[in-house]
Design brief:
Layout: E1 3-4, E2 7-8, H1 20-29, E3 34-35, E4 37-40, H2 51-55, H3 60-81, E5 90-93, H4 101-109, E6 128-131, E7 135-136, E8 139-140, H5 145-153, H6 162-181, E9 185-186, H7 204-220, E10 223-227, H8 229-232, H9 242-250, E11 254-258, E12 261-262, H10 271-280, E13 286-291, E14 307-308, E15 312-317, H11 325-337
Parallel strand pairs: 1-3, 2-12, 4-5, 5-6, 6-9, 9-10, 10-11
Antiparallel strand pairs: 7-8, 13-15, 14-15
Helix pairs in contact: 6-7
C-alpha cells in the first residue's frame, strides 16, 4: 500500500508550509492509500523554543493550544477521507529534550496519568506515535550545522570523540522513548549523523547501543521508518543508513515508508529514490499501519504482536510492494508536472 507514516503541515508546525488539508489533498492526488499525520508534540519550556517561534511570539502555552487544534482538525479530516479510499491516522511525533521531564509532560499532554502502561499512553487521543528525538544535551541537532556543532561541543571526553559521545547519549535517550512510550513507528533512527552521513558506527560502545535499541523495538513489533527526508538533506540513503537498515532486516524488524513531509511540495518527495534504495538493499517486506477493526490475528508467525493497544494494526506487503502500479502512476504524475 502506498503510504507515509510521518508528515507535518505549516498550519501546525512553524518550520513547515501549507495547511493540513492541502497536504492531504496532495497525497490523495498522488494516489497514496495511507497517509498518516504526526505533528510535533508541544515543548514544555520557553528555553526549548526555536528562533522562528520566539520571533513569532509563540510560547509553550500556545504550542499546547496549537496541538489541541491540530488534533481536532486532524480528526475532522480523518473522517472526511474515510470514504475517499485514503486511510488517515492521527498521531504525533515525540521529543526527548530532558529526562524525565519531557516524556512526563508528553504523557500529560496526551491525557494520560503517570504510571500508565507505555502502550496505552495517549489512547483515545492519538492513534499512534512516531518515536523521535531532535536534541542531545537539550540542544537541537537538526536545526542547522552551527547548532549541531554546539551540541557536539557540549560533550567533552578524553576517551571518545565528542560526536560519538553525542551518539551515545542520543541512543540512550532514544531507548528511553522506546521504553516509556512503545511508539508504533521509530522516527529517523540515525538523525544523529544528519550532517555526517558517512560517519562509521563501528565503535563498540556505539554499535552495541544501536543493536540494543533495534532489538528492543523489534521485540515489541515496532515499525522502523525508512525516511525519505534524508535524501533532501544530501544523503545517498534514507534514514536509516545502510548498516542499520541491514541490521534491522537481519533481526527481522519491520520497515515502513515515510516522507517526513513539511508541506505540499515534500509529499512523496524522493519516494522513487527510496524505493530504489530499499530494492537494492534486498528489502522483501514493507509494513504499514491501519486502524484496528479487530479482523486480523493477534500475532505474526514469529509471535510478535500485530495489534497495538493505542488502536492500530500492522499489516505486511510482500515482495509485490516493489512492483505496485503506484510506482508507475506516481512517476508519471511527477513527470507531467515537471
Amino acid at each position: 500500500m502506498p503510504h507515509s507514516n510521518h508528515s507535518h503541515s505549516g498550519q501546525f508546525c512553524s518550520h513547515a508550509k501549507d495547511s493540513l488539508a492541502s497536504v492531504l489533498q496532495r497525497a490523495h492526488a498522488l494516489a497514496f492509500t495511507h497517509f498518516h499525520l504526526s505533528e510535533h508534540v508541544p515543548r514544555q519550556h520557553a528555553t526549548e523554543l526555536y528562533p522562528e517561534e520566539v520571533e513569532a511570539s509563540i510560547t509553550p502555552d500556545s504550542l499546547r493550544a496549537t496541538f489541541r487544534e491540530y488534533l481536532e482538525a486532524a480528526r475532522w479530516l480523518q473522517n472526511e477521507y474515510a470514504g475517499k479510499e485514503m486511510h488517515v491516522l492521527v498521531g504525533c511525533e515525540t521529543e526527548n529534550i530532558t529526562s524525565p521531564g519531557t516524556l512526563d509532560y508528553l504523557t500529560a499532554v496526551l491525557g494520560s496519568q503517570a504510571g500508565t502502561e507505555p502502550e496505552l499512553i495517549g489512547k483515545g487521543v492519538v492513534d499512534y506515535i512516531v518515536g523521535s528525538l531532535h536534541h542531545t544535551n537539550a540542544i537541537p541537532i537538526d536545526f542547522d550545522r552551527q547548532t549541531f556543532d554546539r551540541s557536539v561541543a557540549s560533550f567533552q571526553s578524553t576517551s571518545m570523540d565528542a560526536h560519538l559521545q553525542l551518539i551515545n547519549r542520543y541512543l540512550d535517550d532514544q531507548l528511553e522513548v522506546l521504553q516509556r512510550l512503545k511508539p508504533e513507528v521509530i522516527g529517523h533512527f540515525d538523525l544523529f549523523r544528519l550532517f555526517t552521513p558517512q560517519l562509521k558506527l563501528d565503535a563498540p560502545d556505539v554499535w552495541d547501543k544501536v543493536e540494543r535499541n533495534v532489538r528492543f523495538a523489534v521485540e515489541y513489533g515496532a515499525l522502523f521508518e525508512c525516511n525519505a527526508a534524508a535524501f533532501r538533506k544530501g544523503w545517498n540513503t534514507s534514514y536509516p543508513g545502510r548498516e542499520i537498515l541491514d541490521l534491522i532486516v537481519g533481526m527481522q524488524g519491520r520497515l515502513c515508508l515515510s516522507d517526513d513531509s513539511h508541506g505540499v511540495q515534500a509529499v512523496g518527495l524522493n519516494y522513487l529514490r527510496l524505493r530504489d534504495y530499499l530494492v537494492e538493499a534486498g528489502v522483501e517486506t514493507i509494513w504499514y499501519l491501519e486502524k484496528d477493526e479487530g479482523q486480523t490475528d493477534e500475532k505474526e508467525g514469529d509471535g510478535r504482536p500485530i495489534r497495538f493497544a493505542r488502536g492500530t494494526v500492522a499489516k505486511a506487503m510482500g515482495s509485490e510492494w516493489k512492483t505496485q502500479p503506484f510506482w508507475t502512476t506516481f512517476a508519471a504524475a511527477l513527470e507531467s508536472e515537471s
